[in-house]
Write a structure and sequence with these properties.
single chain; 65 residues; mainly alpha; two-stranded antiparallel sheet; 2 helices
Amino acid sequence: MDVLWESAVYSFKSHLKKAAENYKFNYEEFTTLLIRIEAVLNSQPLMTLSQDPSDLTALTPGNFL
């Protein structure tokens, strides 16, 4: 379980570093950035829902929320 947690933290940090760089955000901008990163991470597919190759529906972390 620790590996999954560490992977999620690494993914979040890498997205944050790429998006933020040296920019100074105000509160609203920073909140928006965090929400967008959260949306990206929650939309990444975990596995397919069916064995049918034409069905592209995937299970994502967002499905659990």
